[in-house]
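User:
Care to share a sequence and structure tokens?

Assistant:
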Amino acid sequence: MFSETIKSIVLIMLVISSAILTYLVWSYQPEFSQMDTSIEPSPNIGQSETVPFTNVMRAYQTVWVDGNDARGTIEEEAVVGVREFLEGTEIQDINVYNNMNRLDPAVREDGLEEFLIVDYPSEMPNKSLFQVLGFEYEGTLPDYSFDRIVVDLAADNVTFYLLNESLDRVAVANTDIGSSYLLSILEDYEDSFESYTGLITNQSTSNNKTAIYGPSDPGEMDIQNFLSSQYSVDAMNDILFMDEEISTSQDEEVYVYESESNVATYDSSTYNYSYNNLDESMSSGRNPHQTIQDTFSFLNSHTGLTPEHMLFDYMEDSNESIYRSTLNGHVVFSNEIMSTVSIQYGDNAVFEYERPQIHVDAHVPGDSTKELPTLENVRYQIALNEELDLQNVSKITIGYDLSFAESQTELNLLQFTPEWYVKYDGQWMQFDEGGLQ
């Protein structure tokens, strides 16, 4: 009798233990510790997102001239950030003059000038600028292109002076913005500005409003490394060729895709993808502002841009827009890997479209750096070079040279090396040991 009671108690305990263990197994939620990794995510967005025009229509630097002091910045937060506070500004009048005599900012009570210089890499239509700024004007804006804006901060109200690249024309736009208001906004970004130097290269750049500006002494800068991956060529063909039947051929590393009205090529050695619309033909004479809008809309609807892209050039004679990537605000150049997105408009639609199929993924931290010479040293070496003419220099900035890392692996490691870049005789070229390439 007693032993039976013991067995019953033991059996009940086993049943209870089994039930508790079953509950614990089914309700168990493992705790995962966060793994530390040396690879950081890239700021680039995916190819499926659209980009606002305000992201790509931007300057490459802003220079704040206060008397004899010049400070500048390439930081996008400052270059673009100030614009957000100007929306709704009224243009009271705007006139275009065929000489530079009207470039005459006010002088403060202490006898000194104060103005802002906003530099673009090439000429842009003023209508595109005022669209981005959100300015209002009751009249009709003139057809005029500029590559530099001088913003007068010494007068009571702000005046915009829009200079063309040849420095022989200026558009003067008077606004209702109070100078004190704009200065208060600039002061919020003051920590972004560093010492800049103005260079005189010819008679046209002989004053502080037309001089060529760049960082005075950039010193040591980091060499950046990123992992890379490729966009799908098949996906690109599906987007551009629509439902047309495609035939494919190959000649070594170049693939050719053809349909009744489209043809595309892809070079696997340079990652260069090029598309032609056979129903269109090369055209010229279109309205620059409208063409830029049309090509931008095409790229956005075909997921062709990221927020890191900027509208770098527009060639009116061929209706071609060129976008370049940027990294940390610096423009990216390359002789090894295609680094531009170019799009050419025909009479009614896109005629030609060219882009790289490689893109940046994750940042790989490293400790490599490069010491850059001072701006004055760059000017001096160009002036000493008998094969170069300093008078042909029109812009200068620090950019990144994109290449495959020397220690290349199957990871396709991309390397971004800081370098001086000079716009010489209309072409952007890399400064290298006293010469340009």
Observations:
- The first helix runs from residue 2 to 27.
- The longest strand covers residues 114-125.
